From TrEMBL:
UniProt keyword RNA-binding present: no
InterPro entries per the UniProt record, alphabetical: Sel1-like (IPR006597), TPR-like_helical_dom_sf (IPR011990)
High-level lineage: Bacteria, Pseudomonadati, Pseudomonadota, Gammaproteobacteria, Pseudomonadales
Leader sequence segment: 1-30
Protein name listed in UniProt: Sel1 repeat family protein
Pfam families hit by this protein: Sel1
Record key words, sorted: Signal
This protein's record includes keyword Cell cycle: no
Length: 340
């Protein structure tokens, strides 16, 4: 009986030992750990493919961005991937001390995340480490968008590369707009970079999106000359582009409009263009401008005409303005004039 118990205990010890070792490729005893100090461990781990393979969990949590639902939307999806299927090295060498583009973030005493931005904001990877017998790579987050998940030539005005940029920009902006990921700021930066790439084609919508995001406060501001060029490209065919260019002529590259309009003649011209393109909002604001003399022209009859046009297109604010002016001057409603 004692012999049988010893034999069973031996199997139990062997099984327990095997379960510990199964977390790594090969042996991973503490004396084979490059360092218990993560700041020293990371350079050694990243510099050696064999160490990476040995100190990577058997099953790695792999996060990738995949298309989801409505066309153009992406979401992160996490699955378990056997490390034997991965191509090592997974991480490029990280120097001791500070490496530009690499940030090591301590989650707690037993977990570190390494954010690698060296390939640019559109290709960020995050490596998740946990401390066991040694530090172990247990997860890899890939926040890039693969070309295989994009649609070729979805926008005729762009070449393939610009098309891919535009689709990536929309996807990154959508993810950033959710404000639920640690990379929210970087996602908006990636969106802006890709919108600018797509706008190189002269595409009005890509240009408007790039300029608008630059002024949103969610991404770095582009240079004033660049923003003006983008709005001008957008204004060629888009009412919102012309309206935005009008605002730009008033307040420049300032996210918060304040003070008097700097270039009222140009601003009024673009606002008229936006209204003539069918924008009810532009018609309403043009009416307000004519009513108050905010730009160049002050003309109550034209203000009424603009409010009337916008109200006919379903703009509730314009309808309220029209009602207000008619109440102030009943005869005004019978006056004939033009908006633009």
């Amino acid at each position: 009986m004692n012999g049988l118990l010893k034999k069973r205990n031996g199997f139990a010890v062997a099984a327990f030992t095997a379960s510990l070792l199964s977390m790594f490729h090969g042996s991973a005893y503490a004396d084979e750990c490059p360092s218990e100090d993560f700041s020293q461990f990371l350079p050694a781990f990243s510099a050696n493919a064999e160490i990476q393979q040995r100190l990577t969990a058997m099953t790695v949590k792999s996060l990738v961005l995949k298309p989801a639902g409505e066309s153009g939307n992406f979401e992160p999806q996490t699955t378990g991937v056997k490390s034997s299927t991965l191509a090592f090295p997974l991480m490029a060498p990280v120097a001791t001390g500070k490496t530009e583009g690499v940030e090591a973030e301590a989650v707690d005493d037993s977990h570190f995340n390494v954010v690698d931005k060296r390939a640019g904001n559109s290709n960020i990877k995050i490596f998740n480490f946990s401390r066991q017998a040694c530090w172990v790579l247990e997860g890899v987050e890939d926040w890039s968008i693969s070309e295989k998940n994009l649609v070729v030539a979805s926008t005729p005005t762009m070449n393939t590369s610009e098309n891919f940029c535009y689709q990536r920009a929309q996807a990154f902006a959508g993810l950033g707009g959710l404000e639920q990921y640690r990379l929210t700021g970087e996602l908006f930066v990636a969106a802006l970079e890709n919108y600018v790439c797509a706008a190189a084609s002269g595409d009005p919508q890509a240009s408007l999106s790039a300029a608008g995001l630059s002024l949103s406060g969610m991404a770095p501001q582009l240079e004033t000359e660049k923003v003006e060029a983008l709005f001008k490209a957008a204004a060629t065919t888009l009412a919102d582009g012309a309206a935005s260019l009008s605002t730009f002529y008033c307040y420049g590259n300032n996210p918060v409009p304040e003070g008097p309009c700097r270039h009222p003649e140009q601003a009024e011209k673009e606002l008229i263009r936006a209204a003539s393109m069918g924008s009810a909002d532009a018609m309403n604001y043009l009416g307000y401008s004519f009513e108050e003399g905010r730009l160049v022209t002050k003309d109550m009859s034209r203000a009424l005409a603009c409010y009337r046009l916008a109200a006919d297109k379903g703009n509730d604010t314009a309808a309220g303005n029209l009602k207000r002016l008619n109440a102030q001057d009943a005869a005004a409603s019978t006056k004939t004039s033009y908006c633009y």
